[in-house]
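Please check the following.

. . .
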Amino acid sequence: MLDQFKISFFVLCDDDFVFDRRTRLPLMKSLLQENQLDLLEGVFRQHNRKTRKGIYSVHLNEFLIKLGWVLPAAQFYEDQANFEIETNRISLKKVVYNEPLTPADLILNFFIARTDKVRSFGDWNPILKGGEHQNFFLKQKKQN
């Protein structure tokens, strides 16, 4: 899919993400460039949509965004891991968070990346409809 675009950077996220005034894509791009990184994960918050309170919070937040306000989210996502690759086994090892950047092999599905670098390690597997995210990062790890 990236072959269709002539851009230096792209942002990837789930289709239900909401960007508000706290989304700092220009800062993410600056950090990516200043630190000569290929990908930089963003930090995001999420409301629990499985509870009555969570559903109410989502609807309230949608209303508040129209007024320029933002409701703090219940969950704070910041999760990274490294792959440990052995002959017959691949496992994940949790990475300790370090300010301001934490190197990791596997990050969440919200990041900014250099288009040419992602193209160089093979893009996403179009056959996979689940686990494609982990497969993408594993291919990148094996190439390096």
In short: The radius of gyration is 17 Å. Residues 2-43+78-143 form one domain.
